[in-house]
Amino acid sequence: MSLYNVLFTSLPVIAMGVFDQDVSARFCLKYPMLYQEGPQNLLFRWSRLLGWMLHGVGSAVIIFFLTIASLKHQAFRKDGEVIDLSILGATAYTCVVWAVNMQMAITVNYFTLIQHICIWSGIFLWYLFLIIYGAITPSFSTTFFMVFSEALGGAPAYWVVTLLVAVAALIPYFTLAVVKTWFFPDYHNKIQWLQHAAKHADPEEELGVVLRQFSVRSTGVGVSARRDAKLVRTNSKVIHADSSSQSQATVELT
Amino acid sequence: AASPAPRSARAPSLPESTAEAAGAGRAARGVYRGPERRGGGGVAAAWGMMMDGSAAGTSNGGSGADGDAARRNNTRMPKYSKFTQQELPACKPILTPKWVVSVFFLVGVVFVPVGVVSLLAAQDVVEIIDRYDHACVPPNMTDNKLAYIKNDTISKECTRILTVTKEMKQPIYVYYQLDNFYQNHRRYVKSRNDAQLRDYKKSNTTTSCDPERFTADGKPIVPCGLIAWSLFNDTYSFTRGKENLTVNKKDISWKSDREHKFAKNVYPSNFQNGALIGGKKLNSSIPLSEQEDLIVWMRTAALPTFRKLYGRIYVDLKANDTITVRLSNNYNTYSFGGKKKLVLSTATWLGGKNDFLGFAYLIVGGLCIFLAFAFTLLYLIKPRKLGDHNYLSWNRHPAGR
After folding, report:
1. Which ranges does the record mark as transmembrane (chain A) (predicted)?
2. Nearest to residue A85, comparing CAs of B225, B347, B189, B307?
C-alpha cells in the first residue's frame, strides 16, 4: 500500500508542481501587482493550508463512509457473492485514485500534454496494476489475487460505486472553487479572467492599462513602502523644523 | 522604449517569431517593463537578452553596447526550448459560468437516472431475514444462554417458520448473517498461514497462527489459526410443506480460492482437538479445496455485520409459501453479544438489497442540479464583472495596512 504514495498519486502532483502556471509568464511581467501575493502572504497562509488539510480529511471521510454504506453486507454481484476485506479495500482504493487524479484535473490551471499523461495514465496504471498484480501467484499477491479480474471487474456495483464516490468526494471542492473564483477572486484569478477574455475580444487593452496603472500605486507593505514612509516622515520633520525656524526668524525680524 | 532596429540586429539565437512579436508589441504599447535580470533560466532571461542595449532597468544599466556584446558571447544561457521555457502548448481551463453550470447539470442528469435504476433494482430484491439466536434458546434457559450453548447435552435443534412475502425466482441464496462479529480485527485477520493451505509440503508451517498453532502434544494443526478455528457450524435444512428444498452447497466459494489458495491434496489434521472448541469440526478425508464452508469462512469479512453464503436453492418460491427451517443452533455468539440471522435472498445485476446506492445517487444528482440552478441564478442576478479590479482584497484599503 505504500506504493500508493509513490506511484499512483505522486506523478500528477509533481507534474502540477513543475509545470503548472496560474498566470502565463507574459502576463506576469505585465502585472507586477501579482508579486504582492508574496509579501501579503496570500498563498501560504495557515488558513489556506488548514483548509486544504480539512479538504483532505473531508474527502477521506466521504470516500470511506460512502464506500462502506454502498457495499454493506448484502451481495454485490448477480451470483450472490458478498464482499470481503480485500474487495472492499480494492474498491475504496479505486475511489481514492480516481478522486485524487480528478482533483488534480480540477486544480491544474495550465493543462499541457504532460499533465494529461500524468493524470490519465495514473488512473490507467492503477487498473493495470490490479490486473497484473492480481495475476501473480497468491504466495506473493496474497489478498489481492484475482480481486479485480474475478470479483470486481465484472461486478456492475463496483463501477457504479466508484462513479458515485469519486464524484461525491469532488463536489465540495468544485463548489468552493467556483464560489471563490467568481466572488472572492485573488489577483491571479482576475488575471486569468483577463487572459480568458483576451482570447475573445480585446478588452485587455483598456482594462489592462487601468489595471497596470493601479498596479503601480503605492501600498503599505514591503521594502519600498517602508522606504517611502521613512522619506515622508523625514520630509515632514524637515518641513516642521524649517517652518518653525522660519517662524522664529520672522518673529525675530519683527 | 528602444528603437526596433538595433534590437533586432542584436537579438541572437531566439526564435524570430517571439522576438519580433514581443518587440513589436512592446514598441506599440509602451509596456511597463519588469525588472531585467541577467542569467537564470526562464523568460526573463530571454527578455533580458532581447532588451540588452535598451536596458533601462537595474543590473544592466550603465553597461554600454560593447560590454553587452561581449557578455552575450560568453553567456551560459541554456538553449531555448518550449519545454525549458515552460511555453508548452496548453489549454487554460477556467471556471466560466457556462462550464460550471453545464458540468453540474450533466452530473445531475446522469446521476438521477442511475439512481432511479439502482433503486428499482434494489426494490426488486426479495429478502427474508430471520433472527433466531434468541428465539432458539429453550425457555428455561433464557437467563443463562451461555450455559445453554456450552452444554453439549442440550439439543441445539430448532425449527423456524418463514413466510415468503413476494415471489422469489431461483436461484435463491441462503446466507447466515452475523452481527457484532469483527472478522476484520487485525490479529484475527493475520491468524492464518496461507502457505500451509496452498502446499501440502508445507503442512507443518504454522507461523503467525498463534494461538492455534499446535495441539497440546505439539502436533501442527492443519488448517491453523483463529479464523479456521472459529468456523461457523450452524446448519440449516428447508422444507416447503411436504417438499424438501435442497440447498446446493457447491461453488459457494470464489473459484480462485478453490483452485489456487486451497490445495487439492491438503487434508485437515489435528483440527479442533483442543479443550476449547471454537466451531465446526472438519472431515479429515475431504481435501481443503472441497471444504467450501471453510473456504467461504476464511475470506475474512470487511465489516462487523456480514453475511456468508451458505448455499443456493434452485426452486422458485411463490408468495405466501411457508418455509420450515430446521436448524441446529451450535455457534456461540452469546458470549460477545453477537446476533445470528438466517437470510434468504434473490439477487439482481446490482447484487442484493441495498437502497443506499440508489438514494445516494438521487441525492447527489439532485444536489448537482440544485447547484446548477443556483449558480445560474447567481450569475444572472449578481453579474459581477469577473476581473473587476475594484474588488481586489488589498485595494479596498488603498492606503495600505
Report:
1. 49-70, 113-136, 157-179
2. B189
Please name the member of B118, B189, B255 whose beta carbon is closest to the beta carbon of A150.
B255
Q: Are residues B361 and B283 in the same domain?
A: no
Task: Give the Cβ contact number of residue A88 at 10 Å.
Answer: 19
B-chain residues within 8 Å CB-CB of A112?
88-90
Interface of B with A in 296-315 (CB under 8 A): 299-303, 305-309, 312
B138 and B246 assigned to the same domain: yes
Whether residues B118 and B148 share a domain: the answer is: no
Among A151, A164, A190, beta carbon nearest to B364: A164
Tell me: do B365 and B328 sit in the same domain.
Answer: no
In total, how many domains does chain B have?
A: 3
- pTM exceeds 0.80 for this model: no
Q: Is A218 left (phi over 0), alpha (psi -120 to 50) or beta?
A: beta
pLDDT in tens, A5-44: 566 777 778 877 888 877 777 778 888 888 888 888 888 8
The answer for B 24-83 residues in CB contact with A (under 8 A) is 31-34, 42-44, 47
Helix (H) or strand (E) holding A137: none
A200 in contact with B, Cβ within 8 Å: no
Residues B103 and B50 in one domain: no
> Which residues in chain A are closer than 8 Å to B41, comparing Cβ atoms?
none
Same domain, B226 and B286: yes
Give the distance from residue A254's alpha carbon to the nearest chain B alpha carbon, in angstroms. Answer: 42
A151 and chain B in contact, CB less than 8 A: yes
User: Could you tell me how far CA A74 lies from the centroid of its own chain?
Assistant: 38
The pLDDT tens digits of the residues spanning B118-152 come to 999 999 999 999 999 999 998 888 888 888 888 88
On whether residue B400 sits in a domain, the answer given is: no
Per the domain annotation, does B245 fall within a domain? Answer: yes
Q: Bridge partners of B392?
A: none
Closest CA to B70 of B53, B58, B45, B47: B53
Question: For B168, which DSSP code?
Answer: B
Give the range of the structural domain holding residue B52, as residue numbers without chain letter: 14-73
Find, in chain B, the residue whose alpha carbon is nearest to that of A92.
B302
**Average predicted confidence (pLDDT) for chain A:** 82
Same domain, B212 and B188: yes
CB atoms within 10 A of CB A107: 13
| Yes or no, beta carbons of B301 and A83 under 8 Å apart | yes
Comparison of pLDDT for A41 and A59, the residue scoring more: A59
Same domain, B25 and B131: no
